[in-house]
Amino acid sequence: MTYVAVHGGWGEDGHLQSWLEMLGVPFTGPRSDACSAAWHKSRALAILQVASVPTAPRVIYRANDPVAESEVRRILGDGPAVVKPATGGSSVNISAVRGIEELHLLDDLAASEGELLVESYLSGREFTVGVLGEEVFPVVEILLASSLFDYQAKYQIGAVTEVCPAEISSEFSEQLQEIAMRAHRALGFCRYSYSRIDFRCDADGMPVCLEVNALPGLTPGSLLPLAASRVGLSYSQLTERIVDLGVGRVGGALAVRARG
Q: For residue 127, which phi and psi values (nearest 5 degrees)?
């Protein structure tokens, strides 16, 4: 069993998983199709929207695209926007555009990143929910010292406080957990895989799904292990559960072949 914990690039976009599948090597985590679906943020959000998962108004921006520019102007007409590469992880190169007068900043970023995802800025609280197999973990609230959970906030000591379980009503917690499981399944994550679903609330407190992380951080201090610890799973036990899910997927596949 290969334990997959490679972040970014071919580790998260499905390439590594495709190689392992072609070679017949069993591995942990989601299959290549789920990784690929989650990796491209705009396509993933389109799938989630069809599955009735709430998403923010957004547009894919490319340099020198007048149609995309018109759509971005419409979003900025309603307030600030968040800009991020259409593919990628670890909150790299996330930035805010406060108004139409800063529209030129998109061309500079598009020149280096290619496609950009431009979304309406959500001013409410930020949460994340981990899913392991068929189990949904307690909700984590991310308390930020800045307005964005970007790369600096994610990895700079003292820039963020993580509260688990989140100090919210049981009804709201259950709502976030239900949406998280719906998003997990909509992108093809099966009962043998895991994911982490990120949310931010709008000004009215309604949760909006930002993205589904196919290979969330698995260091002892990462968000998924934090949530797992609140249901009594130590870091080593979480690792064992992830391996057991991978073994279970192999057994399930063999059972299907035997029945066939």
A: -135, 160
Per-residue pLDDT reduced to its tens digit, 49-102: 999 999 999 999 988 888 888 999 999 888 899 998 888 654 556 888 888 888
Listed in sequence order, the residues at least 6 apart from 1 whose beta carbon sits closer than 8 Å to its beta carbon are 26, 27, 28, 243, 246, 247, 250
H helix intervals, the chain: 15-23, 32-39, 41-50, 66-77, 104-113, 151-155, 170-186, 223-229, 235-259
Q: What letter represents residue 145's amino acid? A: A
Domains in the chain: how many in total? Answer: 2
Is 203 found in the same domain as 140? yes
Q: Are residues 150 and 44 in the same domain?
A: yes
Domain with 24, as residue range(s), is 9-54+123-259
C-alpha distances (whole Å) from 17 to each of 5, 29, 176, 192, 243 are 11, 9, 29, 14, 15
Inside any domain, residue 1: no
pLDDT at 165: 97
Kindly report the pTM of this predicted structure.
0.89
- 102 & 129 share domain: no
